[in-house]
Amino acid sequence: MSLNSINTAELRRVSKICERLHCTCSAEPFSNHLYVVLSQALPSIHFMSIHFLLSPLVLKQAINQSLPDQSFKGFIRYMHQHPGIQRYCASNQPVGTLLTELSPVEYRMTELYNEVYRPADIEDQAWIGVGDRKELIALSYSRDTAYTERDLLMLSMIQPQANIAWKNWKRIRALEKQLKELQTAQIETEQLAQELSAMQTAIQALTRRQLEVVELVATGKTNVEIADALAISPRTIAKHLEQIFRVVTFAPAPNWRERRGNSRTTQS
User: Fold this and answer.
1) Which end of the chain is more exposed for a tag (fewer CB within 10 A), N or C?
2) Quick one: 15 and 127 in the same domain?
3) Mean pLDDT of 159-179
4) What is the pTM of this model?
């Protein structure tokens, strides 16, 4: 069937849908966006958006507002029988209908039909898929009459734009994540620069003797060892350390915190 078979009103509807597909919000799951935009693309009695992870086949998210819960649970049980999922996994075919993939006899022999679709009055289902080899977001339109070639053609016109919108949505999310990481790194760098500046200012305010004590503390020496090296008492070392920590207002490194505790112990 050619594009000439699509009337002007249908072409306008397809164009409007394709335009809306690209108006995404990166904070919203793309499957939710597809559900809203594509819900009126074809007439249906049941419409669902299902996000699958592939290899192995796992249901990630589903939006179902019309199919009864029991039928939906049955679908999850027999979804591996769905010809659309099978065809997508095998050949990446993203558009189709049940009755174009299976003959009516084959379709009615499946557990998917007898346990799920027949109780829900589903005789045919059209679908459109968006994804890659790792995941698939499938939108399905179900009703009690067969879908036409015109319906299939309209979905085929929409699908490439939906796939582009999905890829752009993923790129935007990745860029936003990178930007957030860069902003966080910049903040941390600015904070580090401020701390280093404060440290330098504090060190410049120390006396020569206090600097000698700091240098020996940095080598891991105890208060007694520092006292021996400088020929002064451990109590004097403890007082120097107390004065140093009053001057150095930035958060001390872990070994400095331990040293401060040691000084108090020695002093007592």
Assistant:
1) C
2) yes
3) 90
4) 0.67
